[in-house]
Amino acid sequence: MADRGHSSHRFRQHVRNAGAKPAIPSKRNEAPARCPDWIYTNRNIVERLWARLKEWRAVATRYEKTAASFSGVLCLAAALDHLR
Question: Which residue intervals define the domain Transposase DDE in the entry (predicted)?
Answer without folding.
Answer: 2-84
